[in-house]
Amino acid sequence: MKKLNLAVLCSGGGTNLQSIIDAIENKELFGEIKIVISNNSKAFALERANKHNISALHLSHKQFATPEEFDQKLLEVLKSNQIDMIILAGYMKMLSPTIIRTYKNKILNIHPALLPHFGGPGMYGIHVHEAVIKSGVKITGVTVHIVDEVYDHGAIVMQKAVEVKDDDTPETLAERVLKVEHQTYKEAIQLFAEDKVEIRDNKTYIKL
Ligand code: GRF
Q1: Looking at domain 1-103, does it have CATH number 3.40.50.170?
Q2: Which class for 66: exposed (0-12), middle (13-18), buried (19 or more C-beta within 10 A)?
């Protein structure tokens, strides 16, 4: 098994980051978070990293004159940390094609619904759960997918279902979905540590 060097990119609270930190500490996930990067200097995710002695970096487009300079710096940080996989955990910025091509099939994202439904631009945070409830579907869930150049589009690695209850509000549903996210993300990343994921034609095949 290969110990994965991970970079986790966050913009907010970082509960998914926390679940990955815990999974590594509990030896459920064979990896090491080499660095946590946030575009938001106030993200609680950075504090979580500090608490666990993980390098934390505030890196924002606003610190650079051009998007290319931002990319150059990000690539430098990723390379100097010998990153195997980039884990997006509530990262609110789209990565550029340069980054996505350099780390092809090595960037994961988690989305709080069952893609390809309830995804795409504008579908983030509470908006997803509002749309789910409005649609009347009885099942929602979480999706871990590869990040490609199209928003919420890359190959699906793992999905888990969550029941939508008749009396759910977007907030109660978000809370239940988030718990399932924490369970799912670590399992999906571990599949890569075990080298069990094959990707062909925008589909993943999980080796048993
Ligand atoms: C999660 O709901 C995730 O699906 C989405 O952003 C949220 C991040 O939450 N991409 P947290 O910062 O991990 O608590």
Answers
A1: yes
A2: exposed
Residue ranges lining ligand 1, Cβ < 6 Å: 10, 12-16, 89-90, 110-112, 178, 181
**CATH classification for the domain delimited by 111-144+154-208, as one of 3.40.630.30, 3.40.50.720, 3.40.50.170, 3.60.21.10:** 3.40.50.170
Q: What is the spatial distance between Cα 60 and Cα 149, in angstroms, rounded to a whole number?
A: 20
CA of 89 to the centre of ligand 1 (A): 6
pTM of the predicted model, to two decimals? 0.97
Structure tokens at 35: 């660095």
DSSP string, 88-138: ESS--SPPPHHHHHHTTT-EEEEESS-TTTT-STT--THHHHHHHHHHT-S
**38 Cα–ligand 1 center, Å:** 13
State the distance from the centre of ligand 1 to the C-alpha of 90, rounded, in angstroms.
Answer: 4
Annotation says 127 is catalytic:
no
**Which one is catalytic: 52, 61, 111, 153?**
111
CATH 3.40.50.170 maps onto the chain at 1-103, 111-144+154-208
CA-closest residue to ligand 1 atom 14: 15
pLDDT per residue over 10-43, tens digit each? 999 999 999 999 999 999 999 999 999 999 999 9
| Chain CA centroid to CA 104, Å | 15
